[in-house]
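dumping this here so i dont lose it
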């Protein structure tokens, strides 16, 4: 598993370990956000006897070749990436190194070492300029609004190429605004919680009219694990004259993982205010470059193929996050 010290990777690894499965985790522990948070997650994982950790950068080709050759994993869950829409405006090269060069190294490692299934993180950001709601994997996504989104779309195309040429089963998962305990400090819920508790104003973009399909991390984990255990297969009904982007004649699949309930940003803030018992000071700002006004996931395919779709109510998810935040920071 890549990105083992990251937000989602930590939770997925923990669930697999709890189920008695051996996990080889890699992460480069970069400083995109507070490394101490990553180290705290990692400390919990490394205390488990079935967890093995390697500090590696997925863009390091020789190191990745050596690891794949020595470990010979049966399945790969690829969650490492340079994340963040806004940061991609400031440091585009980080996205090329991690999300493109690194992904090729993952694909090559899987190809040459008999991996039975590659499950990898894509993003709802790939929907970019689309306004057809809910977002469906059956619709084309050719107008990204950020370099981050473009690299995630590129990952899907690259994965299909390896599925087609080499028969490597690949499944891409488009995550929708993940939140929960151990979350990333650059995400809205974390930023808002910290600011409210410190008495600072919060930045509310698009004058608060943003809508997001907020998805609790446990739901994401359940989807990742169910999909990973079910290797992608070719779709015998796939029609090249009317190509469905979500599948192929090759062993390739795409799924959305979202809560299927878009929520206005102001409603999230109100929910957070109730959980904290404090009112936020709001600073309303225009839309930022690279952002989209709304996200909304169609999860019918995920439910049909795995028997699962996210359903954790935002109110309870936010309460769990606040409880973790207070405990972790001793508040």
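and the seq i came up w/
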């Amino acid at each position: 598993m890549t990105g083992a010290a990251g937000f989602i990777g930590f939770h997925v690894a923990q669930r697999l370990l709890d189920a008695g499965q051996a996990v080889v985790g890699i992460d480069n522990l970069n400083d995109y956000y507070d490394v101490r948070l990553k180290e705290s997650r990692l400390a919990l994982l490394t205390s488990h006897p079935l967890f093995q950790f390697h500090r590696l950068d997925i863009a390091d080709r020789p190191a990745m070749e050596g690891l794949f050759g020595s470990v010979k994993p049966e399945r790969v869950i690829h969650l490492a990436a340079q994340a963040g829409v806004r940061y991609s405006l400031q440091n585009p090269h980080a996205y090329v190194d991690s999300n493109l060069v690194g992904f090729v190294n993952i694909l090559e490692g899987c190809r040459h070492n008999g991996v039975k299934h590659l499950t990898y993180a894509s993003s709802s950001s790939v929907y970019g300029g689309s306004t057809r709601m809910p977002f469906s994997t059956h619709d084309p996504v050719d107008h990204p609004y950020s370099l981050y989104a473009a690299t995630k779309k590129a990952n899907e195309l690259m994965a299909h190429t390896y599925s087609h040429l080499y028969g490597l089963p690949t499944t891409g998962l488009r995550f929708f605004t993940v939140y929960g305990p151990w979350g990333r400090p650059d995400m809205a819920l974390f930023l808002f919680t910290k600011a409210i508790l410190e008495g600072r104003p919060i930045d509310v973009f698009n004058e608060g009219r943003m809508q997001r399909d907020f998805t609790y991390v446990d739901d994401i984990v359940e989807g990742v694990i169910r999909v990973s255990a079910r290797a992608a297969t070719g779709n015998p009904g796939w029609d090249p004259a009317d190509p469905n982007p979500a599948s192929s004649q090759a062993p390739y699949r795409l799924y959305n993982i979202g809560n299927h309930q878009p929520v206005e940003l102001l409603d999230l803030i109100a929910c957070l205010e109730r959980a904290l018992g404090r009112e936020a000071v709001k600073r309303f700002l225009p839309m930022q470059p690279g952002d989209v006004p709304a996200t909304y996931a169609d999860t019918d395919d995920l439910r049909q193929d795995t028997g699962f779709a996210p359903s954790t109510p935002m109110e309870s998810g936010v309460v769990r996050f606040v409880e973790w935040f207070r405990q972790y920071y001793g508040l």
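The chain has a mean pLDDT of 95.
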